[in-house]
Amino acid sequence: MRVRGIRLGAGVAVVMALALAAGRWEPVAAGGPGNGTGSGYRVLKPIESGDLTLFPVVRDDGKAPPGDQFLTLDEGLKSGEVEVTEAGNVRGLVRSRGGAPVQRYQGDQVNTLVLVNNSKRPLLLLAGEIVTGGKQDRIIAKDRIVPAGAEPIDLSVFCIEHGRWTESSDKFGTSAKAANQSIMVQPTVRQQAMVAKDQQQVWNSVSGAIGGMAKAAAPASGVYGGTGNTNLNTTSYAKAVQSQSVAAKVDEEAAGVVKSREQALDTLRQEHAVGVVVAVRGEVIWADIFFDPGLLARYWIKLVRSYAAEGLESGGAHGSASMADAQRFLDTPTQGTEDSQGEVGVYRCMEVKSGGTDLFTLEALLPGTGYDVHISRVKLRGQSPSVPQMRPVF
Questions:
Q1: N or C: which end of the chain has fewer CB within 10 A?
Q2: DSSP H stretches of helix in 128-170
Q3: Residue 384 clears pLDDT 80, i.e. is over it
Q4: The pTM is what?
């Protein structure tokens, strides 16, 4: 058994903007100005937008580790340096050490895709990132790192589009309709992939999320008639969240956070902000932590829109999360049995449950690294809404 806490070498990532309208952010810790905290991080004054409250986070030591050595999934797919395809499309591409083709993939599979990183940089993948196309839209199942120029790898995924099993394209792309609108699934769906690690739970949470989107969009669009997600005419999370009516509601929910984006990012770089604690309707539910402020900027829109989608869920009392609440969430002791997996010399992904939360830490092991690239802290909440059991479609 190994006991871990949040490591100071990692960054915390995200961004806020509405505060710029009121003036400069003040880096005040929950315990008072300049006070150190148990996690090595301190929260800044929050930004509120609708039901969403985001607390920027800085490191106690004030350091801003440099670095831009990782390629993101969006960047790789857009440039063509990264390819993702159904497993059945790459039979014969994987070769043995002697050079002979290996028939490793016998056909397409719901929970497996194949990824090739042809770039000169290692690729960073985050759990919950969406790839669209193939026979079903999927999400990345876990955080991981893919070395530059690696052989094709088995990419563990979950389906977020139950019912379709006809190929719309031979390769996968991002879900973006525009360069700045690539998306990640909202925390309730992301939790099922990371914590439950169960396809049925992911489908259940997708169904509940789509139903919530339809309800949220109803006042403006009139599309909702009280019969679940059928009114959005899709079982795809990606298509639902990017429909005109839902996208407008997400924009509205996130308006106070994404306003003046470049100015906000510049300010946060100056403050060396490396992360965010997320509260929805007054409940602190999530934190995303990155190694350096640069990664914060590159994932900014994707993360904020996923948090905003969570805010569309109806029901529940609307409370108010304080800086002390956010700080306690960061400082939750991590004591428990560590579950680790990864690839020797490339990365290690660790999970530790403690105090009603689950802590995920992605550590880079490549030459010149040896630090935590991304950390997620998840509040363990109830299972996704119950819906009729679904079976994988082949």
A1: N
A2: none
A3: no
A4: 0.81
